[in-house]
Write a structure and sequence with these properties.
With about 210 residues, this protein is an all-alpha fold. The longest helix is centred in the C-terminal third of the chain and has 27 residues, at about 140-165. Helices cover about 65% and strands about 0% of the residues. The two termini are about 35 Å apart.
Length: about 210
């Protein structure tokens, strides 16, 4: 065990979250042990459990922190193009999904239906939907309700598709991202008075052989 450093409670919590994030990214949820978290952080198990009373509590805190960071990295501007902004937001999320595959699969498979984890996911999806509603040209309440419902369904579609992609590499990353963008454009076009992406879709590109998530 590394020599213990004296840290403030906030700094110690941040350190434990960083160690937990590293371990949950590296190994499946069931293989991560609280004893290893304590050892890598250079603290006793008693101190670790004072901050996080269970592995579930630690994972929820790690995943909640990741969701907050992804929201911060997803910037939407009403003056920018829809496709450009969707692409940027999807790239930020895919960067995290690829680097933290085990954590994403734990949240969506091992802990699927867990109320704490589900709340974290739903809160992020609701925040993303609200941001998208804020940058789209919506003229009335009826249109807003229709677009809101379409965005809610689209965000769930993206979540399911990306989790499946992490398990089965059915296409490459660019194809996955473009499929998600295309689904959003296709859902929104019939509901908005003006085409939100007049230059979409892009020209087809040759399909690669033996694709893997990257």
């Amino acid at each position: 065990m590394p020599p213990r450093r004296r840290l403030s409670p906030a700094d110690r919590r941040a350190q434990l979250l960083a160690v937990g994030a590293e371990l949950f990214a590296r190994a499946p949820y069931d293989d991560v042990l609280m004893e290893e978290v304590a050892e890598r952080a250079g603290v006793s198990r008693a101190l670790l459990y004072r901050h996080f009373p269970s592995k579930h509590a630690l994972f929820a805190a790690v995943y909640g922190q990741a969701a907050d960071r992804l929201l911060a990295a997803t910037r939407l501007d009403p003056d920018a193009g829809l496709v450009e902004q969707l692409t940027q937001g999807l790239d930020a999320h895919l960067d995290y999904f690829v680097a933290n595959r085990h954590a994403v699969l734990a949240a969506n498979r091992v802990l699927a239906g867990d109320p704490v984890i589900q709340t974290i996911m739903n809160d992020e999806l609701d925040a993303l939907r609200a941001r998208l509603l804020g940058v789209l040209p919506i003229a009335d309440d009826r249109t807003r309700d229709a677009v809101s419902a379409a965005l809610r369904a689209w965000l769930v579609f993206v979540q399911v598709l990306c989790v499946d992609w992490l398990t089965h590499a059915h296409c490459d990353r660019t194809e996955l991202r473009d499929a998600c963008v295309g689904a959003a454009v296709g859902a929104l076009r019939p509901l908005l008075p003006d085409d939100p992406a007049p230059d979409w879709p892009p020209a087809p590109r040759p399909r690669a052989e033996g694709v893997r998530p990257a």
